[in-house]
Design brief:
Length: about 200
Amino acid sequence: MPHITLLPTPPRAPAQLRYSVVPCSLGLVLIATRSDAPTAPGQQLPPLAVLYFGDEAAPLVAELAQCYPKSALVRDDAGLAALAQAVQAALQTPALAAQVPLVLGGTAFQQKVWQALCQIPPGQTRSYSELTALLGDPKAVRAVGRANGANEISLLVPCHRVIGKNGSLTGYRWGLERKHALLATEGFAAQAQQKELI
């Protein structure tokens, strides 16, 4: 499990987001940190608040601005270089994900779901019903699905490890091809048909 900082709820927009966009094995990755999330004692890296995948930088930055309209966005490739390297390492070696500290905003329920996602080990998956059972609320499948979709830290809050009951990949914010690639890197053989990846 990574070190996780939980922000107070209800969620508030940070005054500033520092971000960087760097290449990775899945295209581009945008990472960002929040001005209201201090680095925990003993942590060398600032806590990661946002991780998006994409193919072009401009749409990723536009999505960040849309999700955080009240926050000032500051590109800081040099200042976030070490964090970017840690994310790239975690992408290639999933076990290294635990070394990247995280900060979770959102509602109290969303934070609960995201923490549960972080408990799914690499190479394993859970269905939505299994996740709701883990949370102690078997009827909250739709609410868990919405929280999963609202996850701002792809890869490290591993929403890609949630699949359908029948082993199908179901949806993924950054595309099913990326979800399939992430699971394959972790050693999980998804039972999805090729048509699901189109």
